[in-house]
Amino acid sequence: MTNRAHRLNLGGTNNAIGTFTTVALSASTVNYDRAGNQTVFVSSNYQDLAISGSGDKVLQGTTIANGSLTVSAGTLEVGAQILSVGGTTTISGTLNDNDNLGLNFFVGQVAVNAGGSLTTASNSTFEFRGGIRNDGTFSQTGTGNVTFSTNSPQIITGTAAIVLTGNVIINNGITVTNQNTNTVTLNGSLNGANGASTWANGANATLNYLNAAQPMATGTLTTTSPNLVIYGGAGQSVKPATYHNLTIAGSGTKTLAGNATVNNNLAVNAGTLDFGTPARTVTVGGDLSGGGTISMAGVGLAHVLNLGGTNNAIGAFTTTAASHSTV
Predict the structure, then answer these.
(1) CA 237 from chain center: how many Å?
(2) What residues does each domain of the chain span?
(3) Cα separation, 259 vs 275, whole angstroms
(4) pTM of the prediction?
(5) pLDDT by residue (tens digit) across 161-185?
(6) Residue 94's pLDDT band (boundaries 50, 70, 90)?
(7) pLDDT tens per residue, range 22-40
């Protein structure tokens, strides 16, 4: 399939070929369109790869689409194989990887349309180089790493929630900006490969962080745009940063790892926000609210809580005379 925008529609159940050749930029397409299950033959020479028929389309080995991947119907099953896409990936059906050995590389944007889904419940790994748009279902519930690499900035956008359970790694010098208007939930850790790695929470974005480790302990957490960061796990370390809206939720104690500024509102809805050690300063420009606990206890720890809002209330407040803390 060389030099022209050829199209090969495959309707058979079992598909294999000894040699398959295309030319880069030829825009040739191989389309699996059977209304039922099919095998996807092994090749590193696909240009555009299309899944348009119902049923499961199962990779048989390393599969490289040098152009785009389009899953308009049915389910593309990666399994224990390697899937690499050089262009954009558009999913209106399902892309599924439920094998611990699966490896998934996406150079272009991965776009999950309404009604589409990208799912995994295994330890398979994902690497993104062109960002994510989710208007459907995006659920990575296994523990495999999710890496953002090579291209910067990368944007996470869309109107539907995203769940990432594996550890999220932002490579050297990469900025990932969350512009999703729903909620991005991270169950695993969020960290950079070096100090130039950045997670930026964009305007109207919500980051629900559930891991115990401090988010972006290496690198920068930028959260100053009008947005919300939620520490919603059990025991957690709170990143020293400037937040817009900050919510403490979930059980257990959230311990400050340094001074923090909240430009708008601080809500301690559950659990305890502990100022920790050494002495910390928290400045809140808006209101303080919630039924949780703020702890500024500790001998010799002259913590400071600056409250600039009109309405301030908290479920419980603890300190000690020996701490010399100030509100």
Answers:
(1) 19
(2) 7-323
(3) 9
(4) 0.93
(5) 999 999 999 999 999 999 999 999 9
(6) very high
(7) 555 557 899 999 999 999 9
pLDDT tens-digit profile of 234-256?
Answer: 999 999 999 999 999 999 999 99
